[in-house]
Amino acid sequence: MATEAELKAAGEKYIPKDYDPALYKLRHSLAHVLAQAVVEKFPQAIPTIGPPIEYGFYYDFDLDVNPTDGDLEWIANRMRQIIKGKHAFKVREVSADEGRAIFKDNPYKLELIDGLTKGKDEYGNEAGSAATITVYQQDTFVDLCRGPHVETTADLDSKGFKIQQVTGSYWRGKSDNKMLKRFHATAWASGDDLKAHLERVEEAARRDHRKLGRELELFANEPIFGSGFPMLLPKGATIRRVLEGFITEYERKAGYQHVFTPDIAKKELYYQSGHLPHYADSMFPFMQMGENPGEEDLVLRPMCCPHHIQVYKSKARSYRDLPIRIAELGNMYRFERSGVVGGLSRVRCMTLNDAHLFVRPDQVKGEIAGVLALMKKAYADLGITEYRFRLSKNADPSGPPSTKYVDNPAMWESSTKMLREVLQESGLPFFEAWNEAAFYGPKIDVQVKDVMGREETLSTIQADQHLPNQFQLEFKDSDDTPKRPVMIHRGVISTMERMTSYLIELHAGAFPVWLAPVQVALVPIGDRHFDFARALTERLVNADFRVEADLSHGRMQAKIRDAAKMKVPYILVIGDKEMEANAVAVRLRDGTDLGQKPVHEFVAMLDKVNASRTLKLVPDA
Ligand SMILES: [Zn+2]
Ligand SMILES: [Zn+2]
């Protein structure tokens, strides 16, 4: 399989560790079948490499014609014939010279064989030791390959794959090499699996936060800001303001104190915290302020932890003061490569719903349980119902040694044990994973899935005994001796950017009423209804609702359609009858017609739905 670096260079997605081995074999085998069909169609095509990737595989050929749709159809049909021929995948070990003889007309395979003899795998990556060279043959086609493959083509489903497109791609992903033709295909165990995948792709495209962000006028990316720095448009800014108000209210009620600390600090702060060097790859370059380099260098903060530590240290603390819960909607800056940023989910400046709890050792478990409770409450309001907890640990002791984590085995053991016990005692189902911790301590991560079934971390809680040591934090204990607090890092609703992008996709843009940027759209039918609409707008805005009146001269049906397209929960139509009865005709964004309601009745309903943060548009009676 190609490495992460190679796939990224080639513009492909890296395959996760938990890649299904059965799918791997199937996709790899289909790549050979495709290659056979391609060289039958284009005898001049020279096969290069064809690895499995997420959802399928690709195969690159040196080929100087552009295949037409008709060619691709021919190739797909031929692949089906080959599959039905029940050809065995026969493996043979060969010497380097035998390999060179077999592939004498293929300079790419010759280069690969040279690599194999020098301890590279067939994709040119370090394999550790000189690999044995194997060739696989099915039917008439022989390929240089490490395998593994299915036994015979009878193990493949002729309806389980789809050739998607052909694009250009440089050999080895390097632009001074020759441009090859890359055949992309998605491949599954059965036709039904393929169909389900294609449906997921369609649904993901429908919910894509970048597409909806544009259509719903939530955010935009302006090249002049640089990639990874989106701007929130008024409607997106409204969602963020509501989210911020929502979470800070919950935090205040849970005993948190909010602060503002600088986005920038001297580099020395991050040497003390250990972000330098552990986290240097993700940090922006230093800003040189002094005459000479290194004299006074400032850096954009990658995290708020060292800043909140300064808040803790701003006065003497006693055991009675603890726990101290310091919170901030903190801006953080991450130096992501420009190739990987995009939309709102991968950005270079983000605002984290951050907090650091400074607690006595005997308070750790109770405080973490409190954070979990807060998280569950917030998730319920946001409509996030499917998630699981991961206990994220440091480097797998059975794997190669890692420099990613601070070296303090006793600390890792005790922190991990604490987190595990909290999860066990809370009765929450969880799983454990190596190599997912923060550099200074283990985490509880909340994992959610997107439409494609890809898992990502939305929220985290971390137990940290490292930074308190680095900064020599103390509190005076009941016996008057200085003791060291434990630090709990936590983000309940993630960064504003990530949470917004996640919510856009989760709700397909149709936000719960309490979060919707516009909650009520007023549609006066004619000019004579405008004053009534203006008065009602003023009344609702004064009551703190978010309202837009369409005072254009468009047709009523078009105005209703526009509001529904913007996913406004309530669309109120106002005509003569409504004015006369001081009422509104209420429609929901999904087309449901609730009929005429007296204005006061509608306002009472809106108030109830908004205040309760229900996901329903019409409250239960
Ligand atoms: Zn193979
Ligand atoms: Zn932190």
SSE blueprint and pairings:
Layout: H1 4-9, H2 21-41, E1 46-47, E2 52-53, E3 56-62, H3 69-84, E4 90-94, H4 96-102, H5 107-117, E5 133-138, E6 141-144, E7 161-170, E8 179-187, H6 191-207, H7 209-215, E9 219-220, E10 231-232, H8 234-253, E11 257-258, E12 264-266, H9 267-273, H10 275-278, E13 287-288, E14 297-300, H11 305-312, E15 324-333, E16 349-359, H12 364-382, E17 388-392, H13 409-426, E18 430-433, E19 443-449, E20 455-464, H14 467-470, E21 475-476, E22 482-483, E23 486-495, H15 496-506, E24 520-524, H16 530-542, E25 547-549, H17 556-565, E26 570-574, H18 576-580, E27 583-588, E28 593-598, H19 599-612
Parallel strand pairs: 11-15, 17-18, 24-25, 24-26
Antiparallel strand pairs: 1-3, 2-3, 3-8, 4-5, 5-6, 7-8, 9-10, 12-14, 13-14, 15-16, 16-23, 17-19, 19-20, 20-23, 21-22, 26-27, 27-28
Helix pairs in contact: 2-3, 7-15, 12-13
This protein binds zinc ion (ZN) (2 copies).
Residues 303-305, 356, 489 line the site of one zinc ion.
Description:
The protein has 621 residues and is of the alpha+beta class. It has three domains: 4-206, 2-Layer Sandwich (Threonyl-tRNA Synthetase, Chain A, domain 2); 215-506, Bira Bifunctional Protein, Domain 2 (BirA Bifunctional Protein, domain 2), CATH 3.30.930.10; 520-612, 3-Layer(aba) Sandwich (Rossmann fold), CATH 3.40.50. 35% of the residues lie in helices and 24% in strands. The chain is built from 19 helices and 28 strands. The chain has an eight-stranded mixed sheet, sandwiched between helices. Helix 2 crosses helix 3, helix 7 packs across helix 15 and helix 12 crosses helix 13. The site of one zinc ion has 7 residues, from helix 2.
